[in-house]
Amino acid sequence: MARSFLLIAGLIIFAYGSYMPIKAQLSQLLIRHAWHESTYSGEYVKPWSWADTYPVMRLQAPSQEEDLIVLAGDTGNVLAFGPGLSRLTPHTNHSSTWLISAHRDTHFEFLQHLKVGDFLMTTNLDMTIQKFQVNDINIIDVTKQDIILDDHHATLKLITCYPFDALVAGGPLRYVVTAEKYQTFLY
């Protein structure tokens, strides 16, 4: 009896442990599919019918071999699935600051390896590609300092919690990568 219980409990734990990585991989496939559908149709397409977000841009970091789809919004629900574009920043205005955040231990783990001078690229729904060059990397305390947004200067700000190896998530420190617009072209 005890062996049966342990076997069943072990199978349940194994199934749950397998479910989460499978769900994570499936969600990324659905998000990428929604991005492709959005670029084809010119309309925002949700990755699944009950999603409270949709893809708004593609973000690439060639030096780190990263290729991410950025979602609308930066709430916890959104960041669970990928980087999120703050609702404070209009992604359709090519001459403003775009504020993108993601978790330090998943989608933005690569930020710790970026260097000043590295390039980042964004692709919008209309297939406009902008190339940005990293010009500043800072660690700020959000209880003492604001993140500056500019409506008249094309800037990309990538933000995640800091330190990267913290045992407990959250805290007031943020790792901020700032990149200035380098060039724009159509795909």
TrEMBL record:
<dbReference type="InterPro" id="IPR041999">
    <property type="entry name" value="Sortase_D_1"/>
</dbReference>
<protein>
    <submittedName>
        <fullName>Sortase (Surface protein transpeptidase)-like</fullName>
    </submittedName>
</protein>
<dbReference type="InterPro" id="IPR005754">
    <property type="entry name" value="Sortase"/>
</dbReference>
<dbReference type="GO" id="GO:0016787">
    <property type="term" value="F:hydrolase activity"/>
</dbReference>
<dbReference type="InterPro" id="IPR023365">
    <property type="entry name" value="Sortase_dom-sf"/>
</dbReference>
<dbReference type="InterPro" id="IPR022445">
    <property type="entry name" value="Sortase_proteobact_type"/>
</dbReference>
<keyword id="KW-0378">Hydrolase</keyword>
<dbReference type="Pfam" id="PF04203">
    <property type="entry name" value="Sortase"/>
</dbReference>
